[in-house]
């Protein structure tokens, strides 16, 4: 008698925590449960990483930027350098993926390749690089450079990533043999010295880091403009996007998967993970009260800075209770500005309405409710084919993230939508991605 095959296991969502501490909401730092003492606070980062690992999250994901000033978002005014912080967090964790942002416009391929390869070794295969082109021209001042136009930034990024990949493949996986008897530390013929000459970068020399546990760190790409999506289809393992409407999120998801296939990749080779900023209360009323308190604590100057940056134009001269003005396309966050304008038109928002939305979630999905309501929404988006998972953007840390881990994750686990435990050790294992094999070279 032939035994029936077991039904395929249910598809499960991926979860990351996007860490902009003390909180993603511009007023989040003022909440009584937000930690701001001793800033920047290593113990808070350790707490978040431990909570994420307890909740079986795929990754702890650090944003980054270079600008500072009185009117900047509190999460960007003062912060740790990401790779330094993640190396420290690797020592106190064992499974959670560790992702950091690094700019292709204001860095060199060798430095970035070396840093992420080192982190992958230190963490045992848990490193990820969020590839960004740096949208804002004000970042150029600290580097003494001219900020490139939007399209050129993406051309630079593609070349930058190509150079990093060649560097990561400098050595065979089994190159470092340490054969004391033969007197050979490295196996002969195991090195291929990259020779890369592009329009923006030239690399002549190998990486002095052995090939890392994942082969290549996981690559995350967050651009949603045309050039950003095209770059993601070619290089990304994870696509971090901002979506706040289910139908539009499904259209983006389907379009992204189609682009992957056109690039000769499988639709499963890159995961689409929108950002979501849940405001969680044990009752719906409590959640709304938390959100109202957050909005009461908004610093108007900081919120206008964030809004103007996202739209690419100064919004302060416009009346708050008037319609959202049309803004010309800029060389900065093109896709985010378009998303926000589209949302404002769709929902008939005033500039004040948009001001509060951007101060809170900057255009990302913003549910306010109970743990069950939050779980319902994530399940609806996931099952509708709008996402492979989500990047959590808590309004403040650690309270709202702890609430998600302790109250929402168990619901997702009970429904079979999220893992009960880790089954692998590397970030690629968690995400269901294969290890990057080294290409076969003949010119050793």
Provide a short characterization of the protein structure.
The chain is an alpha/beta fold. It has helices spanning 42-54, 74-77, 82-90, 109-123, 150-168, 226-235, 246-262, 284-296, 300-311, 334-347, 351-361, 371-383, 399-414, 427-431, and strands at residues 14-19, 59-62, 97-103, 127-132, 176-179, 184-186, 195-197, 202-204, 218-221, 238-241, 271-276, 279-280, 368-369, 389-392. The protein has a single domain (14-431), classed as TIM Barrel.
Describe the structure.
With 444 residues, this protein is an alpha/beta fold. The protein has one domain (14-431): TIM Barrel (Alpha-Beta Barrel). Helices cover 39% and strands 13% of the residues. It contains 14 helices and 14 strands. It has an eight-stranded parallel barrel with strand order 1-2-3-4-9-10-11-14, surrounded by five helices. Strands 5-6 form a two-stranded antiparallel sheet. Strands 7-8 form a two-stranded antiparallel sheet. α5 (150-168) runs parallel beside α6 (226-235) and α9 packs across α11.
Keywords:
TIM Barrel; 444 residues; alpha/beta; 8-stranded parallel barrel; single chain; 39% helix; disordered N terminus; two-stranded antiparallel sheet; 14 helices
């Amino acid at each position: 008698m032939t035994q029936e095959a077991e039904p395929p296991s249910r598809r499960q969502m991926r979860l990351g925590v996007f860490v902009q501490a003390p909180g993603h909401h511009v007023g989040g730092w003022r909440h009584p449960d937000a930690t701001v003492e001793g800033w920047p606070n290593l113990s808070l980062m350790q707490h978040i990483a431990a909570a994420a690992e307890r909740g079986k999250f795929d990754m702890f994901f650090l944003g980054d930027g270079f600008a500072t000033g009185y009117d900047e978002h509190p999460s960007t005014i003062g912060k740790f350098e990401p790779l330094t912080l993640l190396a420290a967090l690797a020592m106190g964790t064992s499974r959670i993926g560790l992702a950091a942002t690094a700019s292709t416009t204001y860095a060199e391929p060798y430095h970035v390749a070396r840093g992420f390869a080192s982190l992958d070794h230190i963490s045992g295969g848990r490193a990820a690089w969020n590839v960004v082109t740096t949208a804002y021209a004000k970042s150029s001042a600290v580097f003494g450079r001219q900020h490139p136009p939007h399209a050129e930034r993406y051309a630079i990024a593609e070349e930058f990533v190509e150079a990093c990949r060649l560097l990561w493949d400098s050595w065979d996986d089994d190159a470092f043999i340490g054969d004391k008897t033969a007197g050979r530390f490295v196996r002969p013929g195991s090195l291929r010295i990259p020779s890369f000459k592009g329009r923006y970068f030239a690399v002549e020399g190998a990486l002095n880091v052995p090939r890392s546990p994942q082969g290549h760190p996981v690559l995350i790409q967050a651009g949603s403009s045309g050039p950003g999506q095209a770059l993601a289809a070619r290089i990304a393992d994870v696509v971090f996007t901002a979506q706040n409407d289910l139908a539009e999120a499904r259209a983006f998801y389907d379009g992204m998967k189609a682009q992957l296939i056109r690039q000769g990749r499988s639709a499963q080779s890159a995961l689409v993970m929108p950002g979501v900023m849940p405001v969680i209360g044990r009752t719906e009323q409590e959640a709304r009260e938390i959100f109202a308190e957050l909005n009461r604590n908004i610093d108007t100057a900081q919120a206008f800075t964030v809004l103007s940056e996202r739209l690419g134009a100064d919004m302060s001269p416009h009346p708050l209770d008037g319609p959202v003005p049309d803004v010309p396309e800029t060389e900065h966050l093109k896709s985010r500005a378009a998303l926000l304008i589209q949302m404002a038109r769709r929902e008939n928002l005033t500039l004040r309405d948009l001001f509060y939305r951007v101060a809170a979630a900057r255009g990302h999905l913003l549910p306010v409710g109970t743990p069950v309501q939050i779980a319902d929404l994530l399940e609806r988006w996931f099952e509708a084919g709008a996402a492979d998972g989500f990047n959590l953007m808590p309004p403040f840390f650690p309270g709202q993230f702890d609430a998600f881990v302790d109250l929402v994750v168990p619901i997702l686990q009970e429904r079979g939508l999220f893992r009960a435990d880790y089954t692998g050790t590397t970030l690629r294992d968690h995400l269901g991605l294969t290890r990057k094999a080294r290409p076969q070279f003949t010119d050793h």
